[in-house]
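README: folding subset

This subset contains proteins for which both the sequence and a predicted structure token string are available. Records are stored as plain text. Below is the entry for BED-type domain-containing protein (558 residues), shown exactly as it appears on disk.
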Amino acid sequence: MASVDKPTQQPRGRGSAVWLYFKDVEGKENSAACLACKKEVLRNTGSTGSMRRHIESCHPIQFKELLNTEADRAKPKCKDGPQPLKQQKLSTMFAQANAQEWSDSHPRSVAIDRKILRFIVLDSQPFSVVEGEGFRDLLKEACPQYRLKSTRFYHDKLETLYEEIKLQVQDEIDRLRDFGFTCDLWSDGQLALMSFTIHSITPDFERKQLLLCVKPFTDAHTGLNISAVFSTTLGEWGIGLEQVSLLLRDGASNMKLAGELLKVPSAHCAAHKLNLVVKDSISGHRGLKTILDKARSIVGHFHHSVTAQANLKTLQLQLKLPTHSLVQDVDTRWNSTLAMLRRINEQEEAFSVYRTRHRPIEILTDNESDVSKKAVKLLEIFEVFTLEVSRETASISCILPMVKVSLEHLQQVDCFGITYLRDDLVKGLTQRFSDEKKSHHHIVATMLDPRFRLDFFDEEQRNFAKAELVKAMNEILRETSLPTVDGDTAIDEDLSDVSIETEPQTESQPQQLSMSALFEKSSTSSAAAATLRDLSRAGTLLPVSNRGNAMDKASTSI
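--- output ---
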């Protein structure tokens, strides 16, 4: 920044202290030249407002000097006796207040410290972000009174904030009774992390999801070691094993063994099961594998060439196609394969023209294109299923109904030429979710969900479901010393006596593939479809999926 020596004497006839930093421009009555940067500033005759604004915006050091000079001039003169006080301008008072740096204990400074910590946590930023020139410039412009601290300060402050949030979480846990747990283990070869999230419901029927911890896992990934870490974590938070209603895990044998060693009910994550159903069905057929290999080759060609991407973009505009980028699938996420096929089908006309004008890439044949489009239609239901069980508000009550409507949907889709894929998807869905049909938790949760009740059970399943609900009710009644239930008459009456008003759907609404629409189409779900539109996601609030970023949940209390 340019510097300037303040003149010892103010120009004659210039009463404002601003003229200490300006001089007249010869031959230009309405201009003044800045002594710091030599820039000419236009001004109205008799006014120094534009000159003052120039100093404030371009020369902060000189502006601070100017404020001090004006403050000194405003003080009473004692040379020849008491002098009348000169009233300070409001603009000067506010400018002086804004120029003063806050102390570290100032309430606004403390609040900004917390916001910076929240920014670091939510956006997974390194502590060194506060040393970046851009970040410092931004904060200086937005709040010049705030003093930016060192990385060590924010690191130490985060430890304090963690203890504060931990006390809040512990207070929440102490007010709850029973818990569902989601547990997952990640490893990248260098670091292994294990997360624990609890799900519960308050006495006021408010749903709670709290991330207890994400901790390093340094021992061998055996069921015994996993169960030991789980038990230790429960003890740290004062939770007993008898309070664990369900442990949701992946299908790995070590996680399953951990649940058995802990002697707590456990279930396989529904999203993981869906991923296995689709991947197994796709990988078992050579024709579809050939299509996927071609699709990956096409995507790779455009991803590795800036020129090819530019040419594709031009063709998209000329052919009036959506200007979407191509998607490369990822082995661990089946829905990325679906997204890749969608884009390949969408842009097939552009590929044909590109092949003629630019480079002879291998594209799908007419028959392969037809198979690809039908495969997308078949797989769409699994995308809806996956999104539904991955919602934070999802519970296990939706699993059995979604399996049923998904099987019905698969039978209705035109799959001529890929019947083998449809049959494998049906087989995989049926086999992988067979345990849920006999699961006490899934059955009771579905019956208690006002959207579903008994609508998705056949006669044999209904009788079994009623018996399971009676068993669960009697367990609770025995704990409270109340008479137990004998028979299922009361259950029949309670489940059938439902009167819910719903708003009629307008004919103009577009029909999209969704679980709501599928429930309405299901031949056995007329009552469930009626309740689905207006009821909140009530019912048993046990978790259904352990997918999602645990760090997202960690930040909700900060």
